[in-house]
Amino acid sequence: MPLSDYEKQVLAQMEAQLSDQDPKLVDQMRESAKITGLGSRPRRVAFGVVLMLIGIVVLVAGLIATPYLQNFQFVGTLVGVIGFVIVVLGVLQIFGIGTKPKAAPESRRPAAARSGGSFMDRQQEKWERRQRPEL
């Protein structure tokens, strides 16, 4: 559902107040918009899930093997602990904890073809075009 005119006006006022009150935050938000951690997210999540499944299999194998290794029960316990560590690494991979965000690749279009400016600048331009009365 599109925003009403009043809601658009209030949103524009809030945005203006935020940029006046905390320009450092606005700059930080613009910089974070340039970082692409989300582009590889599906691949990272899939890898994390596979890592978790492997870890669960290793953990269960360690638990099952422990009673059968009469003189070497510590080996089964060690395998179980390694499986648990693999599961934790899979969860960390899913949530992207400990990974560095990658910088956004430069656009391959020529500079003249780009609309220019940051995301917020482009949104502002779109907003102004919509607000102009059609002649």
TrEMBL record:
Transmembrane helix in keyword set: yes
InterPro entries: DUF3040
TM ranges: 45-68, 74-99
Biased composition (Basic and acidic residues): 122-135
Keywords: Membrane, Transmembrane, Transmembrane helix
Region (Disordered): 101-135
Name by which UniProt lists this protein: DUF3040 domain-containing protein
Organism: Mobiluncus porci
